Amino acid sequence: MDQQPFLGLSMSEMQRRGPGMHDSMRLLGVQFPVAMGLGVGMALYFLYDATPNPPVSPAAPLASAGASWAATSDGVDRISRLSDQILRNVVSRLPAKDAARTAALASRWRGLWRSVPLVLVDAHILPACIQPERMAPGGDDLSSRLVVAAASRALAAHPGPFRCVHLTWSHMASHRAEILRWLQLLADKGVQELAFINRPWPLDVPLPATIFRCTSLTHLHLGVWRFPDTASLPRATTFPHLRELVLSLVVMEVRDLAFLLDRSPVLEVLTIIASQTEVRLRLVSRTLRCVQLGMCALADIKVVDAPRLERLFLWMTMDRGSEHELSHIKIGHAPNLRLLGHWQPEHHELEIGNTIIKAGTKVSASTTVLSVRILALEVQFEVRNDVKMVPCFLKCFPNVETLHIYSQDAEKPTGKLNLKFWQEAGHIECVQWHVKKLVLEEFHGKKSELAFLKFIAETAQILDKMVVVVATESFSSPDDVNAKMKPLTSAKWASKHCKLIVLKSSFSDGASPAWSFRIASDFSCSNPFAFFATDAELSRAIFM
């Protein structure tokens, strides 16, 4: 089983993700069966990692909290004397099981839990003696049946609304009547945030169209489903309040994705992870701010009219079809696009306006995107056609201030380009006058990498910091790193105030940059590309 059809990645490539992958999966509750293949396992890992943490936690049991409340010198129950508003606030911050238990504290508390928006997380309502598993290829099991029973009771007992519901531990294929009833209850009682993830196997359980009745949704994460056919839905179908949508391991037709986007008029964040079908996106939205696609077979993205779009992220996307036809990304009207990456010359074809960017394309006002400030590229420095496209890409984004380059190993090297190539590439506006920070990850010490770094060092006039993150498996010692870096330290730096920082890589797998879908869609994180590199910069040894 070397090939995962829905991902299009070989087992050997997935195995390069490093020995820590299985341990990381187990921390997320993913029990990894070898028979499934690392491709599916990795997709599920990122699926669960992208699920936001619920707003409540069972870490502080109600019994312990109650004991501390009761421990007063005079034995007076002062908590129950608080106003209904304060008590409801207290109850709303408890897991569903503990919220229901407050009814037993005193008569003052009875019924309070039914009057507050509830947070229901199925993992929180299992008996403590049960160790659930999110992945059960053999079918239903005891933990799944207990989760289904407990979730069914909680959804039926509470009148709503539900502030947040996570249903992610059930083998949905074995409980189709129950999941239909769940969605009916959530639609009738009102749910704001919903993570509705099938515990595989199989990967294509039909998602009930009842999901479209949940019109109160603001955040929705669907995982491991076959999306319903939208052709038969009423024309008035809409998600009027939906701001964030995550689709993971979903089988979905192009027309159904287009329908979903069209019927989400306030959508701000769209994330698609490991789509089981080819992805085609046509973005016409006055509200979208962040779009990210990972581990997908990407056909094309057309940013037609997206005036608020700030972030466009592509991570581990793949060629479409068997002929390795390039994915086509067209940037039209996106005046606020500031973050773009990870661009792969090997896999992505860029069109700006009506011009497809190729090696040697002349830059003009119609072929530049002035708003982009942070750009990330994945480059095979030993593949000539890859490297020849880099100057062209850079010229299209003249105002880039932070440039991230991930140096990929070339499976089939086709030749190296030296410093002379970069010097003859012509004027690159962003490099000469705007780039303040360069991060090159997975540096192997190759001459082609050094040629690029030397070009940046001798050209970038206002460069403040050059961070080189070395691939530790390529070097035997810090002295070995210093020896490889010597040509760079002797360069005639254009910026006299630039700091050169050399770090050890935290993620030396050679396959792809480290990534977090949650961090990438968090607007409080100004540069998701730098998140892991920054962590390394703070905690890893500096060689130089």
Briefly summarize what is shown:
By secondary structure, this protein is an alpha/beta fold. It is built from 16 helices and 21 strands. A 14-stranded parallel β-sheet has the order 3-4-5-6-7-8-10-12-14-17-18-19-20-21, sandwiched between helices.
Describe the protein.
The chain is α/β, with parallel strands linked by helices and 544 residues long. Helices cover 27% and strands 20% of the residues. The strands form 3 sheets. Strands 3-4-5-6-7-8-10-12-14-17-18-19-20-21 form a 14-stranded parallel β-sheet, sandwiched between helices. The chain has a 5-stranded mixed β-sheet with strand order 9-11-13-15-16. A two-stranded antiparallel sheet has the order 1-2. α7 (142-157) runs parallel beside α8. The two termini are 45 Å apart.
Task: Kindly report how far apart the N and C termini lie.
Answer: 45 Å
Mean pLDDT: 85
Strand content: 15-25%
Low-confidence stretches: 1-21, 538-544
Biggest sheet, spatial arrangement of strands: 3-4-5-6-7-8-10-12-14-17-18-19-20-21
Looking at the structure, what is the overall shape?
Answer: elongated
**Which value, in Å, is the CA radius of gyration?**
26 Å
Descriptive keywords:
544 residues, alpha/beta, 14-stranded parallel β-sheet, five-stranded mixed β-sheet, 16 helices, 21 strands, elongated, disordered N terminus, disordered C terminus
